[in-house]
Structures are given as C-alpha cells and as structure tokens.
Amino acid sequence: MKRLSELRGAAVVVGFEQNSALVRRLESLGICKGEKIEFWGKLPWGSPLIFKVQTHLVSLRYKEAEGIYVDAHHSSEAAV
Amino acid sequence: MKNIILLGAPNAGKSSVFNALTHLKAKTVNYPGSTVDFLIGSWNQAKVIDTPGIYCLDPLSDDEKLTCQILQGKSPIGNIDSFIVVVDVTQIKRQIALVHQLKKMNKPFVVIFTMKDFIERLDLKIDTQALSRAIGVPTFLVTSAHLSKDQELQKDIWTALNSWPAESVKNDVDERLLGQILEGYQKGLSQGVEHWSLRMDRWLLHPILGVLFFMVIMLGLFSSIFWVADPMIGWIEAGIELLAESIHQLPDFWSKGFLTSAVLPGFGAFLVFIPQIFTLFLLMQFLEASGYLARAALMLDALLMKFGMSGRAFVPLLSGFACAIPASMAARNLSNARERRIVRWVLPLLTCSARIPVFVIFVSLMLPEGSALARGLVLFGFYILSLLVAAFAAWVIHRLLSQELEDGVSSSWLMLDLPWYRRPSIGAVAWQAGVRSWQFVTRAGPVIFILSLMIWLLSSYPKTESGEAPELASSYIGQAGLILDPVFEPMGGDWRTGVGILAAFAAREVFVSTLATLFGMEEEGGAFLETLKGATRKDGQLLFSVPSIWALVIFFIIALQCLSTVAVQASETRSWSFALLQLGVFNLAAYILAILVYQSLSILGF
Fold first, then answer.
1. Most Cβ neighbours (<10 Å): which of B368, B442, B471, B595?
2. How many helices (H) and strands (E) does chain B have?
3. How far A24 CA sits from the closest chain B CA (Å)?
4. Angle between helices B264-271 and B230-249 (to 10 degrees)
5. Cβ separation of A60 and B303 shorter than 8 Å?
C-alpha cells in the first residue's frame, strides 16, 4: 500500500486519510474505494498531479494526493 | 406557477439546457441575504431556476450552499415542485452520484443526458429506456443546441415531469442494471476519447510545452483584440460619420449643438471600442466552452500558490480582464475565505474591458504609425504590467492577512475535474459574448450620456455678451479647471486630463468620451487623435508627451475608479471598510506613482 502522491503507474484506491466532506467530494470526482486510478502526469513545479479515473482526468495537489492510499500491487492488471 | 429547479455538476451542460428551454429569456436574480445570484426563466407554465453547479449535496462553496438551500425549499423562491437533473452522458458513472442523493428527497424529477452529438461522433449508442428503468426516473438524451428547436422533445420532458408518479422515485438506482448498460459503452467511450482529448492533453498539459502553449494562447487572446476587431471598428466609425453628416445637414434646432458637439463625439469615442470588448468576451467564452480554462487553472496553480491563491482563482482573475464586477462574484466559488479576500483585493488592478478604450488611446498616441501587431504587443505589455502590479499587491496582502482566515476543512484544496475538449458552438459563444457586451454598453451608456450633457453645459456657459458660446478657458469647466491644474500638473496633465480622470470615476471608459467632448469642442472638425497629439499645456509643452502618457498608463493601471466595482466589492465581502480601504489605497498609490513616473522620465530626458 502506498500514498497516491507516490504512484507512477496504476493502482486501486483503498482508503482516505481524512473522513470529511472532502472524501465525498473525492468520491464525486470518481476517486472512490475500489476504483482504478492511474498516474497520468504532473505539471510545472511538480504540482498539481494528474490522474486518470475511468475515462477522465482529475487533478490533485501533491499534498492532497498524500492523503489517499492506493494498492498498486492489487491492480497489476490495470498497469499502464 | 410551478417551480422547477435545474441541477447538475459543473460543465454538465446545465446552462445550455436552461437557455434552450427558456429561449434565453432569463433574468438574473440576486438571492436575498447573500450575494449569490441565479437565473430564472419561464418554460410553459413553470418557473425554471438555473443554479450553480454541484457534484453532490455536501456543499463546500457559497454557490453550492445556495443550490442546496433552494433545493430544500429554504429560499424565498419557496417550495420546489420538481427537478431537472442535467448529466453529461460521457460522465454518467460519476455524475449519477447526485441522482442517488436526489432520489431520497421524494420529489419527481427527470434526468437529461447532454452531449448526444459527442457520443454520436464516436459511433456510440446508449439505451435511454434501459437507463430510465435503472435509475427509476424518465431520462432523455439531447444535444443541447438542438433542444430549443425540438418542441416534441420539450413536450415529452414536460409531460414526464408532470405525470411521473413520485412513488417510483423512491426506489433506489438499480446498480446491477446500470452497470450492464454502461459496460460496453464506457469501454467505447474510453477508446474514443483516448484518440483525441487525452492526446491533446499530452501537449497542452505537458510540463514545459503546456506552459508555452498557455503563453501563446494568452498572447493570441490579447493581440487579437486589435486585429479581429479592426474591421468592425471601421464599420462603426463610418456609421457615426454618416450620422454626423446627416445631423449637420438638418436645419438648426435647439439640441443640434448638443448632439454634434457632445453626444456624437462622446458616444462615438466609446462605441468604437465595443468590438474590442466583444472580441475579448468572445474569446474568453470560447476558451471556457472548449474546456481549456480548467487546464489553464492547473497550469497556474503552483505559481498562484506563492501569492496565497490557487489555480481555481484563475477563472475569476481571467474574468477580471473583462470586468471586475462579475469576477468578484465569480470569486465566491473559491472555498477558502483567505483566498477569496486576496483575489478580490487584486481584481480591480487587472486590465478590465473598461480600461481598453483608455489604453487603446494611449497605445495610439505612443505608436501613431504602428502596425496592428506592434500596437497589440504594446497593449499586451500593459496587461503584463498590470499583472505584475496585481502580483505585487497579492503578495503584500498574502503576507499581511492572518493565516487563521481559513475555512477549516476546505482550506487550500484544488481537486479539479478536467472536462473533455469540446468544439464550442460558435453561435452560442457569440450570443453570450453579445449579451455581455450589450450589458456593458447599457451600463456605461446612461453614464456617458449624463456626463456628456454635464460637460457640454459646463463648457458652453456662461455665454458671451453677444450670446456666443465662450472660449473653453472662460467657460465654467475652464474656470473650475484652474483648481484642478495644480493637482494634475505634477503628473504631466492639465485640467482637461484632470476632468477626464475625475469623470472616469463614474466609469473608466468615460475618460475617452470626456476627452472627445472637451477636445471635440475645442477643435471642431479635427480628428480626435490628431487633436490629442497636438494638444499643449499652459507652459507650451505637449500634453500627451512620452512621460505624461506613461504617467497616465500607470495611473489607470492602479487607480480604482469604477464606483460600481467598489459597491460590488463591499457587497461581496460584506465589508464597506474593505471596499473603502481598497478605494483609498489604490487611488493614492496610483497618484503618487504617476507623479514619480512622470518626474523620473522627464529628468531622464524623454
């Protein structure tokens, strides 16, 4: 299990650090537990990070992505 | 009359559906007790209320809170009878979360899936009847641009909203069936999008190339204000000339002098800049509709963070280049109170459309023979200068503001959903740009008329003993100018630029019409720019020399002259002290810096 901010391939979301309205906001953007997520790229100065969830792109700051845990091993079939 | 509320995620196509149903006959309504406004229109025998976009019923920003209040009937609109939920058909899996929550409210509603044309281009199909069964409410698949003309479809939506038994809404979404419907569709969608939207992002969101593209797009945006608008300016000038000739040929009547000496020069000088303002609105709408604005927000996030803002602030900041008033309103989408304060502090420093007529005059005075590109580059330079000033102001206020001014959980987050690139509907984009430009004209028009009248009266009286109009220096305005002369002389101006600057406190663009009225009367028949170039002060020096033009540029970049902006800032921040402090600080700084620039350049021999 690793933090989403460290992801450089594909993984499955397994949990969130905080339990708040932000989690519901993440879920509405498609970042839910069990959802496949793929590192897509990063912008100048290393932030924000961009991830592909389902068919769309979502951006998160590095520190926001740090609060999301993913299981990269669990989803090797989803690797890029 | 029934109340129908239109709900949906940002970029779902809600506004397009609203425009199609109400045929663009909507009015903006300010929500009592708050500063958030929304659109109300009529559709059949119902009031349709367009609301700010929401992802779910857990609001974070003021806009989202308002939407939830309206939804729950806790607003002056009263009880809501039914909803229309707008879902982007390419984002069903995510946006259906809102439908889940709405089903618990026991109200009849329908779901309109937008972007039918988009999936048709990818040769994809989706079974809306099966979707209706899975979701438990009637669903419709539409191309928003065609909905306004499709009366049959509108009738079906209306019938479904009014005849659907509320009991069926109570059932949960059939996840299994929904999953089956979406299985093949999502795969096809993913493959289709991989081909172009994501490929475009490989370039436009590249860490290095993306920045270059961003700069090129912004340079194109601001330079096109000149070359796109040029032909339209020619048409307006020709029209005004024709009108002036027609009036001159008429027999004398009591207001002929007022029309030819005040109204036509005043309005003419203002109207020729409308094409540039329209072009700016048009291109901004185009970028927004294409999906690029969200990318640009990302691009600037790390940079804006150094000034206490986030990438989300880019949209209100860019709107600020059109007008600070809607930009200040757009800032309420920022969930962080501290960031909202910083954005609103710097907004009046950005080169709004009202400054364009003023800056265009300065550019034309600087480069009378310059090409459209050269003049465009100088104007772009003014924009960069205003950005630097705004960045400095943001940095200062970022340092001064208390770190505690945060909104708890929502402080400093970004989390942006990047909409797919779309081919904007040129008609819809042009319509919206036209509406916004017209609002600008109607807001400034009456002010220009009243000020033109006042200036004309003050400069036409007292009459001489023979009943003739006085020399300008002997008129009331000329006499009052003696008081203004010492105030504006240190920055290279005289009483005429002083009157222009003071008149600009009603609206910045009035500066140009005021000069046109003043100089038009002084040298009737002479071209406006030629008259300005040759104008001299009492000491015989050119009124518009290099140092004095730069002093005026600096003054207009920094000064907060738009009193409507002050009022809106007070209302948005709910703090008159904030608005008045801004008014005092910016104008004082503008005056002092303009003097410094004029004096320094004069000493250096320019």
1. B595
2. 28, 8
3. 7
4. 170
5. no
What angle in degrees, to the nearest 10, is found between the helix axes of B337-346 and B563-573? Answer: 170
CA pair distance B125, B192, nearest whole angstrom: 13
Residues of B in contact with A57 (CB under 8 A): 198, 201, 417-418
pLDDT at B166: 53
**What pLDDT was estimated at residue A39?**
93
Q: Does B604 touch chain A (CB under 8 A)?
A: no
**pLDDT for res B391:** 93
Residues 444 through 503 of chain B touching chain A, CB cutoff 8 Å = none
Cα dist. B36→B33, B53, B86, B566 in Å? 9, 13, 21, 17
Residues on chain B touching A42 (C-beta within 8 angstroms):
207
How does strand B109-114 pair with strand B37-43?
unpaired
Residue B419 backbone zone (phi > 0: left; psi -120 to 50: alpha; other: beta): beta
Structure tokens at B144: 């928003």
DSSP state of B541: S
Q: Which residues of B218-242 are buried (b: 16+ CB within 10 A; e: fewer)?
A: beebbbbbbebbeeebeebeeebee
What is the enclosing helix (H) or strand (E) of B258?
Answer: helix B256-258
What are the distances in angstroms from CA A20 to CA A16, B126, B250, B376, B403? 10, 35, 74, 49, 22
How far apart (Å, rounded) are the C-alpha atoms in residues B69 and B77? Answer: 10
Stretch A44-63: mean pLDDT:
84
Mean pLDDT per 10-residue interval, chain B, length 606 residues:
86 82 58 52 86 78 77 81 90 84 84 88 86 89 85 90 66 82 82 77 90 89 76 83 84 75 72 78 84 87 88 84 78 79 93 85 83 82 91 91 54 72 80 77 72 76 76 76 84 87 77 78 59 84 91 94 80 86 95 96 89
Neighbours of A38 (CB within 10 A): 19
> How far is B521 from B531, CA to CA, in rounded Å?
11
Q: Residue B462, preceding bond cis, omega within 30 degrees?
A: yes
- Is ipTM beyond 0.90? no
Given a cut of 50, whether residue A77 has pLDDT beyond it is no
Those residues whose C-beta lies under 8 Å from the C-beta of residue B15, and which sit 6 or more positions away, are: B50
Helix (H, G, I), strand (E, B), or coil: what is residue B113?
A: strand
pLDDT at B339: 87
Q: How far apart are CA B102 and CA B113, in angstroms?
A: 16
